[in-house]
Each structure stands twice: as structure tokens, then as C-alpha cells.
Specification:
By secondary structure, the protein is of the alpha/beta class. It has a single domain (about 55-85, about 110-370), classed as Alpha-Beta Barrel (TIM Barrel), CATH 3.20.20. Helices cover about 35% and strands about 15% of the residues. It has helices at about 40-45, 55-65, 70-75, 80-90, 135-145, 160-165, 185-195, 240-245, 255-260, 275-280, 305-315, 330-340, 350-380; strands spanning about 10, 55, 95, 110, 115, 120-125, 150-155, 170-175, 200-205, 265-270, 285-290, 320-325, 345, 395. The chain has an eight-stranded parallel β-barrel, surrounded by eight helices. A two-stranded antiparallel sheet has the order 1-2. A two-stranded antiparallel ribbon has the order 3-14. β10, α10 and β11 (about 285-290) form a beta-alpha-beta unit.
Length: about 400
Amino acid sequence: MAASAAGSTAFHLFEPKADHSAVCCGASDHAMTAPSPYSANDFFRHSGLNQPTIDLRELESMAASKLDPAIYSYISGGAGDSAAANLAAWEQFRLRPRMLRDVTNVSTVSRVLGDQTAAPIIIAPTAMHRLVLPAGELATARAAARAGVTYVVSMAATTAIEEISQAAPDGRHWMQAYIRRDRGITRACLERAAAAGCQAVVLTVDSPGTPSYRSRPGESLNRGLPLPNLAPDQSRPDVLSVAADYAADLTFEDLDDVRGWTNLPLVVKGILRGDDAVRCLDSGADAIAVSNHGGRQVPGCIPTAMALQDVVDAVAGRGDIYVDGGIRTGADVLKALALGATAVMVGRPILWGLAVGEESGAFAVLEQLRADLSRLMAQCGIPDISCVSADLVRLAR
């Protein structure tokens, strides 16, 4: 289908899955629910869409019509123009397709932290999914497992990490963390996550105790929902008050200690400079997530698409590099890979999918991104993710 007036792409959801045989060219009361019977068709029945396509900007508009305005504002909001700049930056790069390559079989299968995944797509850590859907993080975990991708569980989730792992026992989960002033709180959370089967820790370092969002007077942003990972000892915590308790004295010297709490691989998220990325790796990190927190923290911040190359060049193959911020199409994913990312992280679109189509809505977003990536790989002469290289993109002049 043609691009919409807003410049976004309408994707075909029900493309056949690719043949992956190509040879490379180089604690809440929602826990323990039964696996969901939802199919992709349920997404369209619930959403009101009458055809098997999904436009993520249209999906956001639909989600906005279903959500409490304050909740939608919290999810969609940014600092100045930084969120919009993230979206626009990917458009500044143009693809350079290769021709006369054999793309009979195209595979999106990738590796993150050495483990195989169905596509180079990771669900970014986003807070409080039960504000969007009663099943919340349980639905997200099941959708991720069905799609064969990793789900990074936010420390500010409204469901305990143990229950999330139990809801999708075959899923791959990483645990995101903020360092509280009392580091013992964060350490205890990460030790619980490791015991629950999480395979990595994602440490967010761009939020030094200064929440950028304010809730309405007399109303907590989390609406009385629990925060069993972030504030396990509080029965009715206020998420913004807890966020004000994030440590402001976190330094590179702390990274080795954090890694030692669990001995799980450590991904440092919130890096926008190559020199910072190198210091993270030198200090015990295993991988870097290029992120400006969805454009929510710093007005006028460099878009992640523009920051990525500096980090890739500085890291020089020493570890995985992930990138988030404005990923909405398979073309965005392919551009990120060509710029040197190992995988992309997707945040807000998952919440829009949950709001509109519940678990199957989140799954539809993930499957559509994978299918669109597969289609574009074929059109650009790329049979396998390992064949993606920097010559596939150019910065528009």
C-alpha cells in the first residue's frame, strides 16, 4: 500500500513467514493465567480495522481514542521536540538496494547477546502496562514469546517479574533497572529477576532522580497500581515519588558492581556518545543501548539515529549495540542495522497495540515489523541479516 499523508507506511500483516533455511552470505492477581487463544485476526476484530494491514501512526491515533487522556499524554509525551526528532531522523537516511541477488529465501533470524531470536527486534522497557490493559505485562510477555523476540521488563512494571516469567515460560526476558539511592533495593530486584530466569540486566543511566513528568494534583500517575519490582515494600506507591529517589551519583565505577550482583550480561541503556560507550565497556558492560529515553528527558537532544554511528565506530565490534527511538517501520529497522546496530528496541508501538488489540495487538505490531523487514530485505537484495552492511544507506542531502 502507498504511504499515508503523514509519511508512514501501511504494512501487510499476513505475509507468509520467511523460510529460514537461507545460507549466510558471509506478584499481582493477574499471574498464572492460561496462554492466550488470541490470533492475529482478533487484533482487527477488536480494533475496528477491516483489513489485514497496520499503520503504526494510525494505531497510535486509535490508542489515543481508547485511553484516558492523561495516560495517553504520559506515554506519548516528550521533552521539547526530541521525540518528534527521533521519528524524523530515520527519514534522513535513504536505502540503496542491491540488485541481481538471490533472495529466494530470506531470513530475519538474528542473535542478541549470543542467543537466537526470530528478528532483530527487542521490546524496549516501558513502564506500567496495566495502565493500558488489565493483563498488562503478562500480555506483553506472551506476545513477545509468540513473536520469538526478547522482552525487556521495566523495573517500573505493574506486575512482579516472577509472574511475568511464569506467564511466558518459553519467552526470553531481560530485566531493566534504575539504581535507587538505597542500592540494596535495586540489587534485590535484580537478584529476584535472575532467580526468575531473566537472561540479562538492562541498566538505564539517563534518569538521575529528576522526573520530567508531573501528574495531576491529587492523582498518582500509576493510579494506585502496585510497583512490585521498583517499590516492593509499598502497598500504594507513587511512581513519580519513587523516580525522584533514583541515584544521582551513579558513575562508570558502579557498573562492575552492578554486573557482579547477578553475573548476568549487562546492557547499559541511555548512551548517546562513543566515548561514553567505550567507558561503559571498559567498566564491565557487555552491550550498549543507544537511547534518549524515547525523547522524554532532554529537550533538543540528538536523535538516536544520528547518535548511532558515533557509538558504533567507538565500540568497534566489542559488544552488541541496540538502538531505540522512533522505530516504526521495517525500513527503520533495516536502516538501523546498516548503521551498525545489532537490533532495535521498540517501545510505544507495543503499548498502542495493547490498547487497541490486547495481546494480539502487541503481537501484530511485532509480526508486522518482522514481515516488513523481511519484505524490504528481499527488495534490497539481502537474504540474511549478516549480509546487511553500511553501504545500504546514505544520509540524504
